[in-house]
C-alpha cells in the first residue's frame, strides 16, 4: 500500500502571494512598454494599443523573468525586438536593455511606495514553521532579496531561489519547474512532500510539472481563481482569504491525498464530451453545495447568483434538490417552482405539477409522531448546552454541535444516544458536525434518486445523472449512480468518496452549473 507523504516544505512565490508588489510590477511594465510602443508608433506611423494591466500583465509577463516576459509580450503583438546582450544599458532598445530599464522603473516605484505584506500569508508561514514545516521563496524577481529585507521578513524563509539564482545557475524560469524543485532541494524536501503557493498561471504550471504534492493558487478574485484552477491548481484561495488556510488543513490535504479526485472544472471538456447525445438529470445537495456551511441552519441562504443559475439549469434539465433538511424548509430556501424537492434525505419527495400530475412520495409516514416526541425531548435535555441546536424535521431530527465547546460534546452525544435507546425505530447517522436520528428504514439519498429517476421516466440509457453533494450522506447517491451517472463531491480537502470528480466550494459549484447550462 502506498503511504501518503507528510507535508515537509512550503514554497511561496513572492509577488501577489507574500507581498502586494504585483501591482507595482504591473505599473512598471506599463510605464516601460507604453513608452516603447509610443516611440515605435511615431517611427513607423502605426499606432500601437497601450499595455493592458489586467489582460497583458497576466497573459504575458506575470511570474516570468523580465526578458522572457518581454519576449512573450512582443511576440503576442507581432513586434520584433532584438535580444541584445546581457549588459545592455537601459536606453538600448533590445530585450536586455528594456529589461534593465524595467528594473530601474520598479526600483523607483518601490522606493516611493514601499512594500505591503499580505498578513494572512505571513501568519500562515509562521504557523507552518511552528509545525516544523520548512519554508522557501521561489520568485522570478531579481529584487526578491531586497524586497524581503525591506519588508522585514527575510528570516521567515530558509531558502530563496530568485531571478539572481536563475542568472547564476542557468536554471530556467516558470512555467518550467526548475525554481520550485531547486527550492525544495535547498530545504531538504522532495517535491511530492511539498506545497507550492502561486498567483500566476505560469507558476501553477511549474508546480504541476514539478509533481508537487499540493499546488495552491492565490488569486485576487473569482475569475482569477478559476483561471488558476484550470491551469492545474489543486486548491485555490482569494488572497484576502489566505489567512483562512491553516497548517491543519494543509496537513490533512497531504494525509488524504490518495483520495483526491480531478476537478470537474479542469476536466470540463471531457465531461462535456461524455454528455454528448445524452440528457442530464441533475441532483443537487443544499447545505455545503448550493449554500456555504454556516453555524446556524437558518442562516444558510441561497445567493441571488446561485438561485439564478439553478433556475436556468432547471429550465433545461430535470432538476432535484436532495437535502437532509425538511422538504418544506429547503423548498422555502431555494424558492424555485420548477424543481423537485427531496427532503429529509429523500424520505419526503414532491415535484411541480406536470403532464401526469405532481410526483409525491413519503416514506415511513408512521414515524412522524415519534420524531416530534424525540425532538421535544432533545430540546429539553440540551437547552442548557451552549451552542447545541436541535432541528426538528418531519421525518428526522438533527442535532447540530458545530458551535458546542469541546468539553460539552460528550453531553450532546449522550443525549442523542439516550433518545435512540428509548426509540428503537430510529437509527443514528453522522454528518458534518451533526448527529441525526432517522427512521430505521432502508432508505437514503441513493434510493431516493433511483426512485425519482423511475418516477420521472428517466431510468433509461439516454439519461446521464449528475449528482453534486458535499456530505457523507451524499455517498449513498454517489454509490447508487456508479456506472450510470457522474458523482461530484464538494470538498476543500480530499476524503474517501465514491464520487468521480470534485469541486472545492459553492463558488465552483456555481461555475460548474453555469457551464452545464451553456453547453
Question: Do you know the CATH topology of the largest domain?
Answer: Rossmann fold
- Rg is 27 Å
CATH architecture designation of the largest domain: 3-Layer(aba) Sandwich
Averaged pLDDT: 89
- Number of E-type strands: 18
Q: What's the CATH H-level homologous superfamily of the largest domain?
A: HAD superfamily/HAD-like
**Cα distance, first to last residue?**
40 Å
How is this structure best described in words?
By secondary structure, the protein is α/β, with parallel strands linked by helices. It folds into 4 domains: 9-19 and 116-258, HAD superfamily/HAD-like (Rossmann fold), CATH 3.40.50; 22-113; 268-362 and 443-518, HAD superfamily/HAD-like (Rossmann fold, 3-Layer(aba) Sandwich); 366-439, Trehalose-6-phosphate phosphatase related protein, domain 2 (Alpha-Beta Plaits, 2-Layer Sandwich). Helices cover 41% and strands 16% of the residues. The protein has 19 helices and 18 strands. It has helices spanning 22-44, 55-61, 66-77, 95-113, 119-130, 144-151, 163-169, 178-186, 201-209, 222-231, 247-255, 268-275, 304-316, 327-334, 368-382, 409-422, 445-455, 475-480, 506-518; strands at residues 9-12, 134-138, 159-161, 194-198, 214-219, 235-238, 279-284, 319-322, 340-343, 348-350, 360-362, 389-392, 397-400, 426-431, 434-439, 463-469, 485-490, 501-503. The strands form 3 sheets. It has an 8-stranded mixed sheet with strand order 11-10-9-8-7-16-17-18, with helices on both faces. Strand 16 (463-469), helix 18 and strand 17 form a beta-alpha-beta unit. Helix 3 (66-77) packs across helix 4 (95-113). The longest helix is centred in the first third of the chain and has 23 residues, at 22-44.
